[in-house]
């Protein structure tokens, strides 16, 4: 859930966080090496004393994080629900028949890629705890957790 909170806070406050940001040369070089076809690039500071860069890469919206030394930490990849792997979508359909996928994203960190789906009840409910769930999966379609 902490990934989702960080992710949503970045998305909703991005415009507020923009200021003149000093980006270390190493971070710029590492970013350009990793995402050489990136467009619409915007850098920002984070509350964890890291650098975040929002950009488009191969028609996908992403946010990458770097430490103050310029080392890449992780990248959030915004997905459409139908971009989740079939096995994940099938698991959600079977395991959560009363829910629909509202949002999807992936987090890449090193060789690890984790997928997240934000599920919401198809019918409204007053029980806020059961109205929404966040489920996560490995890149091998293994269920990781539900929050």
Q: What order do the SSEs take from the amino end to the carboxyl end, as H and E?
A: HHEEEEHEEHEE
Number of strands: 8
Mean pLDDT: 86
Low-confidence stretches: 11-18
What is the strand arrangement across the widest sheet?
1-2-3-4-5-6-7-8
Strand content: 35-45%
- Helix count, DSSP H or I runs of 4 or more residues: 4
Shape: elongated
Structural class assignment:
alpha+beta
The end-to-end span amounts to 6 Å
The major sheet is characterized as: 8 strands, antiparallel
Helix content: 25-40%
- What Rg, in angstroms, do the CA atoms define? 17 Å
Structure description:
- The longest helix is centred in the N-terminal third of the chain and has 16 residues, at 2-17.
- It contains 4 helices and 8 strands.
- Strands 1-2-3-4-5-6-7-8 form an 8-stranded antiparallel β-sheet.
- It has helices at residues 2-17, 25-34, 86-95, 128-131; strands at residues 39-45, 51-57, 60-66, 72-79, 99-109, 112-121, 132-138, 143-146.
- It is α+β, with helices and mostly antiparallel strands and 147 residues long.
- A hairpin with a 4-residue loop joins strand 7 and strand 8 (143-146).
- 27% of the residues lie in helices and 41% in strands.
């Amino acid at each position: 859930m902490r990934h989702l909170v960080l992710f949503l806070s970045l998305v909703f406050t991005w415009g507020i966080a923009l200021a003149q940001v000093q980006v270390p040369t190493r971070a710029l070089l590492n970013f350009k090496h990793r995402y050489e076809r990136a467009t619409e690039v915007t850098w920002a500071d984070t509350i964890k004393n890291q650098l975040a860069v929002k950009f488009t890469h191969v028609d996908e919206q992403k946010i990458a994080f770097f430490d103050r030394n310029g080392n890449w930490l992780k990248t959030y990849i915004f997905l459409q629900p139908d971009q989740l792997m079939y096995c994940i979508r099938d698991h959600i359909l079977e395991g959560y028949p009363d829910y629909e996928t509202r949002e999807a994203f992936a987090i890449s960190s090193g060789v690890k890629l984790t997928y997240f789906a934000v599920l919401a009840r198809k019918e409204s409910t007053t029980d806020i705890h059961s109205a929404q769930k966040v489920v996560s999966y490995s890149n091998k379609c293994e269920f990781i957790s539900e929050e």
